[in-house]
Amino acid sequence: MSPHEPSSPSEGPQGSARAAGAAGRPGGRLPEIATLPNLRDLGGHRTADGGRLRPGLLYRSVDLSRLDDVGLRALADLGIRTVYDLRTAQECAVRPDRLPRGARRVELDVLADAEDDAPAQLPAILEDPARAEEVFGGGRTERRFETAYRGIVSLPSARRSYQALFRGLAEAAGEPALFHCTTGKDRTGWAAASLLLVLGVDHDDVVDDYLRTNRDLLPALRPLFDRFARAGGDPDLLVPALGVKEQYLETALDEARSRYGGVAGYFRDGLGLAEEELEALREVLVETAPSSSEAAAG
Hints:
The protein is an alpha/beta fold. It is 48% helix and 7% strand. It has helices at residues 14-20, 69-76, 89-94, 122-125, 129-136, 140-154, 156-170, 187-198, 203-216, 222-230, 239-242, 246-260, 263-270, 275-285, 292-297, and strands at 40-41, 52-53, 58-61, 82-85, 104-107, 177-180, 286-287. The strands form two sheets. The protein has a five-stranded mixed beta sheet with strand order 1-3-6-4-5, covered by helices on one side. The chain has a two-stranded antiparallel sheet with strand order 2-7. 42% of the residues are buried.
C-alpha cells in the first residue's frame, strides 16, 4: 500500500494515531476531544517567504453535533468566535452543531448546486451495505469523489461559500475561527489546502496536511467499520470514501488550473477576491519573518 493511500483502521490501534500527537506537526498542542476527531490547528505552517501561519487562530474539524459538555468546554477554551459550517442544509438539520460558548455559526452550503452529493450523503449510505455497494463498489468511489472535488472548485454554490469563508476570515480581525463539514476531509480539506497554498505553504506540506485525515479520522471511525461489517458489508469498501487520497486533492488542483490558471487565479477569478482582500487574509493569518536587522536587535 502506498504511503499516500488511506489504510483500514484495523491496521493499527487508535492510540497510534493519537501518539503522533503534536510531535512534528504544525500548530500548538490541542486538547484531546474524543467527540471531535480530525481537529487540528492550521497554525505553524511555514510559508515560502519565511513567514508562519499564526497558531491558535484557525481550526478545522468534523461537525460539532457530537460534542459533549466536556468537549464544548475544551473548544470554548480555544476562544473560537465563528464556526463556518460547510455542510448541506439537510446535513445541518439532521445533525445540528453544538456551539461553544460565545461562538456564532455561519452556514455555507458548498454543495447546494451539486447534482450528485454522495459525499454529503455518506452517513445515510453507510447504514445500508447494499446501497453502499451500489454507490461505491466497482471503483465508483474514486470516480464519484473526483467528480465531487471538481465541483467543490467550480460549482457556483461552492465558489460563493468559499468566497464568504475566506472573506470572513480576512475581516475577522484575528478572532479565532473553525471551519468544518461532516467528516472534515473533503469540503474542509479543500478549504484548508487551497488557503495554505495561496498563503505560500509548500505543496508537499499541504499534501501531508491533507492526508493527515487518514491518521486522525479513520481510527476514530472504527465502530462504524465494525457496524458495517456486522451488517454484511465489506469494510474495505469504506476506506476510500471515509479517508482521503492524494488523487482527490490533485483533481481539485487540476480543476483550478484548467479553469483559473492555478490557485492564485482561483482565489482571484473563481472566488472574486480582490488583491486587497488576499493581502488582508495574509496579514491576519501569517506572521512575517523578522528582518535580519530586527533579528540581530532581538
